[in-house]
Amino acid sequence: MRKRLRSSPVFFFVKVVFMQRTLIIFKPDCVQRRLVGEILGRFEAKGLRIAALKLLQVDRALGEKHYAEHHGKPFFNGLIDFITGGPVVVGVLQGNEAITVVRTMLGATNGVAALPGTVRGDFSISKQNNLIHGSDSPESAQREIALWFQPGEVIDYTIAGSEWVFGGA
Q1: Does domain 19-56+89-157 fall into CATH 3.40.50.1010?
Q2: 133 catalytic, yes or no?
Q3: Helix, strand, coil: what percent of the chain each, to 5?
Q4: Which of 3, 26, 63, 109 is the least crowded, having the fewest Cβ atoms under 10 Å away?
Q5: What is the pLDDT of residue 12?
């Protein structure tokens, strides 16, 4: 005589992970040294995804808006001259704790002090020519993304297999 086994209901618990966004700017020194692809690849390999990306020449007005908090400081004009001195690649990266992840991967602002293994530790020996900008807070990221991108230019999508990257996050 066979006993009939009753199947139990199966419950799946899905943890919703908030995907934070951050602005990145591959500065003129990064573009001129042809490091954009290599550095962008590091972010993607870490698990961040590209939500927006474009190449442009920054004009003085946009540079001044972006660096408005530094207006009046002795280095302000040099900073504006630098960011407007050549093309930049500006983008939005998205992922779990994207701001912290990007800033950790960038390393110290001054390339001389940046640890090996970080972007600046591996590729920079300068404070100004430090290759890339990353937002420093959620508020800055929101303000900077709105400054550089129109709402329709930032794309939200799912990458196949992302559960292998974000599982347990």
Answers
A1: no
A2: yes
A3: 40, 20, 45
A4: 3
A5: 46
